[in-house]
Protein backbone atom coordinates (compact mmCIF):
# COMPACT_ATOMS: atom_id res chain seq x y z
CA UNK A 1 0.00 0.00 0.00
CA UNK A 2 1.31 3.45 -0.90
CA UNK A 3 2.34 5.85 1.84
CA UNK A 4 -0.16 8.64 2.49
CA UNK A 5 0.79 11.76 0.55
CA UNK A 6 -1.44 14.72 1.34
CA UNK A 7 -0.97 18.19 2.78
CA UNK A 8 -0.59 18.20 6.56
CA UNK A 9 -3.56 19.72 8.35
CA UNK A 10 -1.41 21.23 11.12
CA UNK A 11 -1.34 24.99 10.55
CA UNK A 12 2.26 25.44 11.61
CA UNK A 13 3.42 22.73 9.20
CA UNK A 14 1.34 24.23 6.42
CA UNK A 15 2.62 27.76 6.95
CA UNK A 16 6.23 26.58 6.88
CA UNK A 17 5.56 24.65 3.67
CA UNK A 18 3.87 27.68 2.12
CA UNK A 19 6.87 29.88 2.85
CA UNK A 20 9.41 27.28 1.71
CA UNK A 21 7.57 26.65 -1.56
CA UNK A 22 7.00 30.38 -2.13
CA UNK A 23 10.67 31.15 -1.63
CA UNK A 24 11.67 28.36 -4.04
CA UNK A 25 9.26 29.66 -6.68
CA UNK A 26 10.36 33.26 -6.19
CA UNK A 27 14.07 32.39 -6.49
CA UNK A 28 13.37 30.39 -9.64
CA UNK A 29 11.37 33.19 -11.26
CA UNK A 30 14.00 35.73 -10.22
CA UNK A 31 16.90 33.75 -11.67
CA UNK A 32 15.13 32.96 -14.93
CA UNK A 33 13.86 36.51 -15.36
CA UNK A 34 10.09 36.16 -15.15
CA UNK A 35 9.93 39.52 -13.38
CA UNK A 36 12.25 42.51 -13.56
CA UNK A 37 13.43 43.00 -9.98
CA UNK A 38 16.16 45.55 -9.29
CA UNK A 39 15.09 46.95 -5.94
CA UNK A 40 13.15 46.02 -2.82
CA UNK A 41 9.65 47.18 -3.84
CA UNK A 42 9.15 44.67 -6.69
CA UNK A 43 10.76 41.98 -4.52
CA UNK A 44 8.10 42.69 -1.91
CA UNK A 45 5.25 42.83 -4.43
CA UNK A 46 6.04 39.64 -6.36
CA UNK A 47 7.01 37.59 -3.31
CA UNK A 48 3.78 38.56 -1.55
CA UNK A 49 1.80 37.58 -4.64
CA UNK A 50 3.45 34.15 -4.71
CA UNK A 51 2.81 33.63 -0.98
CA UNK A 52 -0.85 34.54 -1.49
CA UNK A 53 -1.26 32.11 -4.39
CA UNK A 54 0.52 29.23 -2.65
CA UNK A 55 -1.29 29.93 0.61
CA UNK A 56 -4.65 29.68 -1.11
CA UNK A 57 -3.67 26.30 -2.54
CA UNK A 58 -2.79 25.14 0.98
CA UNK A 59 -6.22 26.21 2.29
CA UNK A 60 -7.65 22.72 2.49
CA UNK A 61 -10.34 22.99 5.17
CA UNK A 62 -13.76 24.52 4.55
CA UNK A 63 -13.18 27.36 7.02
CA UNK A 64 -9.55 28.10 6.07
CA UNK A 65 -8.92 31.75 5.22
CA UNK A 66 -5.40 32.73 4.15
CA UNK A 67 -4.51 36.42 4.00
CA UNK A 68 -1.44 38.38 2.90
CA UNK A 69 -0.86 42.08 3.59
CA UNK A 70 1.85 44.59 2.76
CA UNK A 71 3.23 47.23 5.11
CA UNK A 72 1.42 46.12 8.25
CA UNK A 73 1.86 48.70 10.99
CA UNK A 74 3.11 47.48 14.37
CA UNK A 75 3.32 49.93 17.28
CA UNK A 76 6.03 50.13 19.93
CA UNK A 77 8.67 48.14 18.05
CA UNK A 78 11.92 49.00 19.78
CA UNK A 79 10.40 52.30 20.83
CA UNK A 80 8.76 53.33 17.57
CA UNK A 81 6.13 52.35 15.02
CA UNK A 82 7.29 49.94 12.32
CA UNK A 83 5.76 48.79 9.04
CA UNK A 84 6.41 45.10 8.38
CA UNK A 85 7.14 44.36 4.71
CA UNK A 86 4.81 41.35 4.40
CA UNK A 87 2.48 39.61 6.84
CA UNK A 88 0.53 36.43 6.18
CA UNK A 89 -1.82 34.29 8.21
CA UNK A 90 -4.33 31.56 8.45
CA UNK A 91 -6.89 33.80 10.12
CA UNK A 92 -7.38 33.05 13.83
CA UNK A 93 -4.87 30.17 13.58
CA UNK A 94 -1.28 31.27 12.93
CA UNK A 95 0.51 34.30 11.48
CA UNK A 96 3.94 35.33 10.23
CA UNK A 97 5.87 38.60 9.87
CA UNK A 98 8.35 38.90 6.99
CA UNK A 99 11.14 41.42 6.43
CA UNK A 100 13.07 41.72 3.17
CA UNK A 101 16.38 43.16 2.04
CA UNK A 102 17.53 43.57 -1.57
CA UNK A 103 21.05 44.95 -1.93
CA UNK A 104 23.10 45.19 -5.12
CA UNK A 105 26.80 45.84 -5.68
CA UNK A 106 25.87 49.02 -7.56
CA UNK A 107 24.10 50.42 -4.50
CA UNK A 108 27.20 50.12 -2.32
CA UNK A 109 26.80 51.24 1.32
CA UNK A 110 27.31 47.70 2.58
CA UNK A 111 27.96 48.98 6.11
CA UNK A 112 24.46 50.42 6.30
CA UNK A 113 23.06 47.33 4.62
CA UNK A 114 24.56 45.07 7.28
CA UNK A 115 23.22 47.23 10.11
CA UNK A 116 19.77 47.39 8.50
CA UNK A 117 19.67 43.59 8.16
CA UNK A 118 20.37 43.19 11.88
CA UNK A 119 17.78 45.83 12.76
CA UNK A 120 15.21 43.89 10.71
CA UNK A 121 16.09 40.68 12.54
CA UNK A 122 15.67 42.46 15.86
CA UNK A 123 12.33 43.85 14.67
CA UNK A 124 11.15 40.32 13.91
CA UNK A 125 12.29 39.16 17.34
CA UNK A 126 10.21 41.93 18.90
CA UNK A 127 7.02 41.37 16.91
CA UNK A 128 7.17 37.58 17.24
CA UNK A 129 7.29 38.05 20.99
CA UNK A 130 4.26 40.35 21.01
CA UNK A 131 2.08 39.84 17.92
CA UNK A 132 3.22 37.07 15.57
CA UNK A 133 3.82 33.33 15.86
CA UNK A 134 6.69 33.31 13.37
CA UNK A 135 9.15 35.65 11.67
CA UNK A 136 11.09 35.25 8.43
CA UNK A 137 13.97 37.34 7.11
CA UNK A 138 14.91 37.09 3.43
CA UNK A 139 17.80 38.83 1.71
CA UNK A 140 19.05 38.90 -1.88
CA UNK A 141 22.35 40.40 -3.01
CA UNK A 142 25.01 40.20 -5.70
CA UNK A 143 27.46 42.11 -3.50
CA UNK A 144 30.24 39.84 -2.24
CA UNK A 145 31.22 42.04 0.75
CA UNK A 146 28.07 40.72 2.45
CA UNK A 147 29.22 37.17 1.79
CA UNK A 148 32.94 37.38 2.53
CA UNK A 149 34.38 37.73 6.01
CA UNK A 150 35.42 41.26 7.03
CA UNK A 151 38.74 41.86 8.78
CA UNK A 152 37.89 45.35 10.06
CA UNK A 153 35.09 47.87 10.39
CA UNK A 154 31.31 47.43 10.57
CA UNK A 155 31.47 43.98 8.98
CA UNK A 156 33.20 42.61 12.07
CA UNK A 157 30.38 43.87 14.31
CA UNK A 158 27.34 43.29 12.12
CA UNK A 159 28.81 40.24 10.41
CA UNK A 160 26.84 38.68 7.56
CA UNK A 161 29.49 36.49 5.92
CA UNK A 162 28.68 32.96 4.86
CA UNK A 163 28.79 30.49 7.75
CA UNK A 164 28.68 33.15 10.47
CA UNK A 165 26.57 32.37 13.54
CA UNK A 166 25.51 35.26 15.77
CA UNK A 167 26.02 35.02 19.50
CA UNK A 168 22.85 34.50 21.52
CA UNK A 169 22.16 37.45 23.80
CA UNK A 170 24.79 39.67 22.21
CA UNK A 171 24.29 43.42 22.66
CA UNK A 172 24.89 45.74 19.72
CA UNK A 173 25.92 49.34 20.25
CA UNK A 174 26.79 51.45 17.23
CA UNK A 175 26.63 55.07 16.16
CA UNK A 176 27.50 56.43 12.73
CA UNK A 177 26.23 59.07 10.34
CA UNK A 178 22.94 57.86 8.93
CA UNK A 179 22.64 55.07 11.51
CA UNK A 180 22.68 56.96 14.78
CA UNK A 181 22.20 55.35 18.19
CA UNK A 182 21.78 51.75 17.09
CA UNK A 183 21.11 49.88 20.35
CA UNK A 184 19.63 46.40 20.70
CA UNK A 185 20.19 42.84 21.84
CA UNK A 186 19.42 39.65 19.91
CA UNK A 187 17.80 37.05 22.12
CA UNK A 188 18.69 34.12 19.82
CA UNK A 189 21.52 33.09 17.53
CA UNK A 190 21.20 32.97 13.75
CA UNK A 191 23.27 31.22 11.07
CA UNK A 192 24.07 33.15 7.90
CA UNK A 193 24.10 30.28 5.42
CA UNK A 194 23.89 31.83 1.97
CA UNK A 195 22.71 30.04 -1.15
CA UNK A 196 24.55 30.98 -4.35
CA UNK A 197 22.62 30.77 -7.62
CA UNK A 198 24.41 32.25 -10.61
CA UNK A 199 25.78 35.63 -9.57
CA UNK A 200 23.23 36.06 -6.78
CA UNK A 201 23.16 35.12 -3.11
CA UNK A 202 20.01 34.28 -1.14
CA UNK A 203 19.50 34.20 2.63
CA UNK A 204 16.55 32.76 4.56
CA UNK A 205 16.39 33.10 8.37
CA UNK A 206 13.62 31.92 10.66
CA UNK A 207 12.74 33.84 13.85
CA UNK A 208 10.57 32.02 16.36
CA UNK A 209 8.47 33.47 19.15
CA UNK A 210 10.15 31.34 21.80
CA UNK A 211 13.76 31.48 22.93
CA UNK A 212 15.03 28.48 21.04
CA UNK A 213 17.18 29.89 18.29
CA UNK A 214 16.65 30.61 14.60
Give a summary of the structure in a few sentences.
Helix content is 30%, strand content 33%. The protein is of the alpha+beta class and 214 residues long.
Strands ordered across the widest β-sheet: 1-2-3-4-10-9
Number of strands: 10
**Cα shape:** globular
Taking the alpha carbons of the first and last residues, their distance comes to 38 Å
List the keywords:
two-stranded antiparallel ribbon, alpha+beta, 10 strands, 214 residues
What does this structure look like?
It contains four helices and ten strands. It starts with 10 loop residues before the first helix and ends in a 6-residue tail after the last strand. It has 214 residues and is of the alpha+beta class. 30% of the residues lie in helices and 33% in strands. The mean pLDDT is 89. The chain is globular. The strands form three sheets. The chain has a six-stranded mixed sheet, sandwiched between helices.
Q: Could you give the topology of this structure?
A:
Elements: H1 11-31, H2 40-57, E1 66-77, E2 80-90, E3 94-103, H3 110-130, E4 134-141, H4 154-157, E5 164-165, E6 171-176, E7 179-185, E8 191-192, E9 195-197, E10 200-208
Parallel strand pairs: 3-4
Antiparallel strand pairs: 1-2, 2-3, 4-10, 5-8, 6-7, 9-10
